């Protein structure tokens, strides 16, 4: 049992060293836009992938901006996740500006190490190009958070033809 624990610790340590190296390489990069498709049915998997990145970026002097997450962030969750309370800003959705436009403006400022935007609709090629240019300009990471609609279980049955058969009843 103890050997298993040591092996697990070595793997985690190697993973954290590798991820820290990758993040420090990113901080020297000119900017990046990436898309994370997440399952609303498995939020733990998204946290497992996203939190190490956000924790590492939290060591930078710049802020983290969360645009229109589906749920309000709680201070307790941020603290428990190891994210800096004094460097995380959440902006709720507004009707005045789209999430893509807000991401572009935020990325261009250079004030944020990462800008997360929850976007449920497909974005155009031109919007993606503008996001990439803004990320390069602000030397920041833009994360487009997209729900995986294909694998979500519907909350109610879909409309369709119902065939009643005495063979199955």
Topology:
Layout: H1 2-27, E1 32-38, H2 43-57, E2 63-67, H3 75-80, E3 88-91, H4 99-109, E4 112-118, H5 125-138, E5 141-147
Parallel strand pairs: 1-5, 2-3, 2-4, 4-5
Helix pairs in contact: 1-2, 4-5
Short description:
The chain has about 170 residues and is an alpha/beta fold. Helices cover about 45% and strands about 20% of the residues.
Would you give an account of this structure?
With 169 residues, the protein is an alpha/beta fold. It is built from 5 helices and 5 strands. Strands 1-5-4-2-3 form a 5-stranded parallel beta sheet, with helices on both faces. Strand 4 (112-118), helix 5 and strand 5 form a beta-alpha-beta unit. Residues 1-24 and 152-169 have low confidence and may be disordered.
């Amino acid at each position: 049992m103890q050997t298993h624990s040591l092996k697990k610790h070595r793997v985690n340590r190697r993973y954290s060293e590798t991820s820290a190296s990758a993040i420090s390489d990113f901080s020297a990069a000119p900017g990046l836009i990436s898309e994370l498709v997440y399952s609303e049915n498995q939020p733990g998997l998204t946290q497992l992938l996203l939190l190490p990145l956000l924790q590492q970026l939290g060591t930078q002097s710049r802020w983290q901006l969360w645009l229109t997450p589906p749920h309000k962030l709680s201070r307790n969750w941020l603290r428990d996740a190891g994210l800096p309370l004094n460097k995380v800003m959440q902006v709720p959705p507004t009707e005045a500006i789209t999430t893509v436009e807000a991401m572009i403006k935020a990325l261009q400022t250079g004030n944020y190490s990462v800008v997360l935007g929850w976007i449920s609709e497909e974005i155009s090629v031109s919007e993606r190009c503008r996001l990439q240019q803004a990320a390069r300009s602000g030397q920041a990471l833009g994360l487009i958070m997209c729900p995986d609609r294909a694998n979500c279980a519907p909350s109610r049955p879909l409309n369709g033809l119902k065939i009643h058969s005495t063979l199955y009843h």
